[in-house]
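Reviewer 2 asked us to include a model.

Predict the structure of this chain.
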Amino acid sequence: MEPVIDQAFAAALYSDGDAGLDTGASLLAADPTADAELFRRGEEFVRRAWERGWQPADVVRTVRRELDETAAGIAAGLIGSETGRYESLPPRWRAQLDGLPDAPPRNRPDRFSYGSAVLGLYRLLLRLPAIEPVGPPPGAAPHGLRLPPAHDEPRMLTRIRALLAKAEATGFPEEAEALTTKAQELMARHSIDEALLAARTHSEEAPGACRVGVDAPYETAKAILLDVVASANRCRAVWNSDLGFSTVVGFEPDLDAVELLYTSLLVQGTVAMTKAEAGQRAGGRKRTKAFRQSFLMAYAQRLGSRLAADTARVTAAAEAGAGTGSGTGDGGGGDPQLLPVLAARDMAVTDTAERMFPRTTTTRVRGVTDLDGWDHGTAAADRARMGGPGPELRGRHDRRGKR
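Predicted model (structure tokens):
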């Protein structure tokens, strides 16, 4: 006789609709001896996701998006158990695991409901498509992209993170601007130092990649914001709208900067949008989805323009040996290797991105329809300006697309 677990899977995983889930959950609820095998099969599904290019944060984000928080918690429990079998994990995985939600108690509130949730999760995991890998799965040797060794967060990034957290928390725009300015200056020095050090030591470091979630609502505006931040930090961002993330390609210090800066600017922009809406409501006008979409689009576009203008000015200053404060020049003069080094890194990033994504399409952006939202978003971008950015800012917009 076919094992209960196989009967439940045949009913639930390879068919659509709730009827199959109900049948499978009923079979599992009636046989507690299937619990251990059910969990083991779940770990197997998770392991297959790694082999198809997925990482822990990707899986949980997709499960939360397609199902619910309970399923995301069950997935997190499986991920924690499956990854615990490896002596070491790829870079960035530890931080992702630390950010996963808690797993709910098994078989709660009852065996049938829990079994239905598990089977719904397994159905989704089984159907995850293959995506571009941004690193090897756990237990495999690196291949394709060159990856940095796993290490603790550099002290410089810890300082930058703390400054941006204060910028997000303060209620005073002037203080937020000063804190963000200081964070950007530290990013600039860190990026230049890393680039020149790699050139002087003839490092074989090559671009890597990471994925950043781009969640609804207003995901088009958020993807554009990430794109301009990535471009400003010598990275390329490619948006997969169907799966809700962008893949950012660049050198490791620049990837760190993109993640930190995008997250902080998104928080600052959302807070500013909420305040603008409150002011408009106080004036008797109801705010709409069009207002919020227009706000975030203007916010992203204005930041991109500012970063592009800053790039030309600060790169020229760095070439002349003025204004970086990085200590990388010689005797206060410009480092003659700076621009060739940055150009070579730009080319390496472009080549890597085009190898990973040989086919991208340009996304048509819906027109802005709320002038007030656009004006408020532009003003918010001015308040969140990067003031005194470092030479890593480039302002070149990358293509946005999906496979």
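The two ends are 44 Å apart (CA to CA). Strands lie at 208-213, 236-240, 245-250. We have added this to the supplementary material.
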